[in-house]
Amino acid sequence: MFKTIETLIENKKESYFTLSDRIWDIAETKFHERESAKTIMAVLKEEGFSIETNIADIDTAFIATYGSKGPVIGFLGEYDALPELNQKSGVTKKETDPSFGTTNGHGCGHNLLGTASLAAAIATRDYLKEQNIDAQIRYYGCPAEEGGSGKTYMARAHAFDDLDMAICWHPGTDNAIIGSPTLANIQAVFEFKGKSSHAANSPDMGRSALDAMELMNVGANYLREHVTSEARYHYAVLDGGGMQPSVVQAHSKVLYLIRAPKGYQVKEIYDRICKVAEGAALMTETQMTVHFDKACSNYMPNKVYSKLMAECMSKVGAPQFDDTDIAFAKELHASLSEEDKKFMMVPPVTPIEKQVLAANQGKVLADYIYPYNEAH
Ligand SMILES: [Zn+2]
């Protein structure tokens, strides 16, 4: 079976390379992946999939389906880029490519993610067809996975309800099954509106939105002591009110990203941070509005499928690299600090993991498979 699937993918690999390179060049960020989605849809259409667009009212979300009988198997594809990460391909140092016409770039490898999920969907369809096995194969075009949680809107629109299983992957430095949960999170913008005045002549006339935001952040930082120690929350100032200290700032905006192991814990912290923001508005006589941005549940791994995937992965084997690949990776490695390199590896826990890591010490490309561990 593995040999047949490998051949099915090999036969179409050139078109997959072209697709991945094209997505790399287009480099569109969250909810703007119009050309990327169109390019992927064109390949699926060519392969005989029928396409449903505008899923959950998002014009870059789509579902491509093949077949109508049997179990429903979903492959999740992502194709969004990140701002400020424009990078010339084939170059081992930071170098922008003006031909992109944008500062966006694929730092997270979603050009590969979206393409390989598509390759898997097509190969599975081809294999099952060859074997005369009925199944409905679906490719989910999932937008905005970089800070937009596109799949949550699709889930709310019931796009995944009738799936029997869903498979996804992410490019990384290791060949491993991700069997561990992730943190749940909520993201929201807190906006304050005050009253402008001259800060020296008539400070008593002003109500500072900047003060409100600062007081909110101070309050939120005090709150850290009284939430679960596994919680993480951070903020970014989107609007400090202006460039003039001689003006009482009339507007401000701060973006909060709150994370915790479970959804209910995030919700509790979010509700308390909202109270802190209300308190800051009360203290400064400003108006506060919460703009809820997004929320994600914690990822719940499917241990049965994870184990099965690990078994399949060990049968297929790790990718092998030639001298050119290794030389290129060595150059990339040279640009990293020791600290960076440490974070590239999944930290070993069990004796077998330690053994595998020790046996492959110093390699710049992982041509081995990391042993499956439910804790990772
Ligand atoms: Zn990613």
Describe this structure in words.
The protein folds into 2 domains: 2-171, Zn peptidases (Aminopeptidase), CATH 3.40.630.10; 184-296, Alpha-Beta Plaits, CATH 3.30.70. The chain is 38% helix and 17% strand. The mean pLDDT is 93. It has helices at 2-11, 13-26, 34-46, 110-130, 150-156, 209-223, 263-284, 303-316, 323-334, 338-344, 351-359; strands at residues 50-53, 62-66, 72-78, 136-142, 165-167, 184-193, 232-239, 251-260, 287-296. With 376 residues, it is of the alpha+beta class. The protein binds zinc ion.
Task: Outline the fold blueprint.
Elements: H1 2-11, H2 13-26, H3 34-46, E1 50-53, E2 62-66, E3 72-78, H4 110-130, E4 136-142, H5 150-156, E5 165-167, E6 184-193, H6 209-223, E7 232-239, E8 251-260, H7 263-284, E9 287-296, H8 303-316, H9 323-334, H10 338-344, H11 351-359
Parallel strand pairs: 3-4, 3-5
Antiparallel strand pairs: 1-2, 2-4, 6-8, 6-9, 7-8
Helix pairs in contact: 1-4, 2-3, 2-4, 6-7
The structure holds zinc ion.
Zinc ion (ZN) binds at residues 108, 110, 145, 170.
Order of helices and strands: HHHEEEHEHEEHEEHEHHHH
Helices, by number, come to: 11
CATH structural fold name of the largest domain: Aminopeptidase
CATH architectural grouping of the largest domain: 3-Layer(aba) Sandwich
Q: Report strand %.
A: 15-25%
- Overall tally of structural domains: 2
Nearest-angstrom radius of gyration?
A: 24 Å
What compounds are bound to the protein? zinc ion
Question: Alpha-carbon distance between the termini?
Answer: 28 Å
Number of strands: 9
Class based on secondary structure composition and strand pairing = alpha+beta
Mass-distribution shape: globular
